[in-house]
């Protein structure tokens, strides 16, 4: 698989055996042990499927996966094997490149168990202490390069970079970098003489779930000055980038920003620039229940590109999808660790009907400081799938789900109508791949859940080059069997169809 992904790193599933079957198997296994830790099932075939869908919908756009969205090893390796590029936002802190003895800080970090770090990630000759702290510090460029991704497949997109990190990029051959202000240009002029800069422009789309232009992006008014300043400083500008905001629901957002980018290309041409790169960022939906379909957004992009950057115009188009690639591939299983009944109304209330109703608080073993950190990003209320099917006339109770930390804000979902659950019951949450693990912390000493990677045999064969990449018109039909995902219609109660394990 182009040397990026080894079969020992995931469970291969045969045709007819779904991720749900695998999840059922794992739940059975785990239920027999005393350790009922939360865990993920990550369907790498779903990532392969998304890649094919991307190539079909946006045939003129090269994807650079936004590592910040989910930097788990299986995802990064799968996308590297598929030939995607990578959008990285950092390398590491300058103090984190130890040679010789570890510092006190290293020892503190080493003493913690670091999930997700396997020997396969370690490049030959690398310092073990650096490697141990890498995953905690979101060392994106180092992570991607450690698996063998060449520097020309990396774009360093953070427009505001620490000087030591600019130098790191320079010494590791990463040339493509974003900026949006004059101070950054000065830093780059001094620290990275071979940088190829992309001017990041602001977008006007506050309807995204995470609007980025409040923090990043040059206004159209300031672009001319920035382009002139870059010329004076001898900094090479190769293109324009934007990001419409994560979770973008406005179909006009991409065309609007592509038109703005055209204006800045023209501004650049007047100043003698020959820019040849347009980066249309991320913001594509990652799940099927999104209000806007990926293909609808892609259609608006294609029309705008035809108008402003037609084929043959000499401009290469790239995108930086994050959630699109990973959201639907990850399912999280959590265990109920405690529960308590509380009155629906505050003490002293004389509303008889409400005080006779049960109101149950459930405590589960992952929370908002862990994998449910996506609640901050997406402002959503995750809805659980019950593992145990309740009886037909089971009463439903007003229920809320709470994380394991000792913090009153650690509430995952409220106002749910659930049948009564018991300690030890399992709940699963779908679409948990984007901004979940990536933004989780070890607050209160809790560890990230283990990730169980899986992939269908057909997706494996495609990655091994034994199946040709489908022609454009065939790509959609190829998508279905590559993922070993499952269909769930009832979000609360599902009947698992158990098939004996056929994991090779
Ligand atoms: N590129 C940059 C610079 C970003 O900041 C982000 C996310 O905020 C992304 C790409 C990925 O965005 P998304 O996950 O919405 O596709």
UniProtKB/TrEMBL annotation:
One GO cellular component, as annotated: cytoplasm
Active site residues according to the UniProt entry: 406 (proton donor)
Keyword 4Fe-4S assigned: no
Alphabetically ordered keywords of this record: Lyase, Polyamine biosynthesis, Pyridoxal phosphate
Molecular function GO terms recorded: carboxy-lyase activity
Required cofactor names: pyridoxal 5'-phosphate
Pfam families (alphabetical): Orn_Arg_deC_N (PF02784)
Top-level lineage group: Eukaryota
Record bears the keyword RNA-binding: no
Record-listed N6-(pyridoxal phosphate)lysine modification sites: 68
All copies of domain Orn/DAP/Arg decarboxylase 2 N-terminal, residue ranges: 44-92, 138-327
Gene Ontology terms: biological process: putrescine biosynthetic process from arginine, via ornithine
InterPro entries, sorted: Ala_racemase/Decarboxylase_C, De-COase2_N, De-COase2_pyr-phos_BS, Orn/DAP/Arg_de-COase, Orn_de-COase, PLP-binding_barrel
Family (UniProt): Belongs to the Orn/Lys/Arg decarboxylase class-II family.
Cited function: Catalyzes the first and rate-limiting step of polyamine biosynthesis that converts ornithine into putrescine, which is the precursor for the polyamines, spermidine and spermine. Polyamines are essential for cell proliferation and are implicated in cellular processes, ranging from DNA replication to apoptosis.
Name this protein carries in UniProt: Orn/DAP/Arg decarboxylase 2 N-terminal domain-containing protein
Gene source species: Mauremys mutica
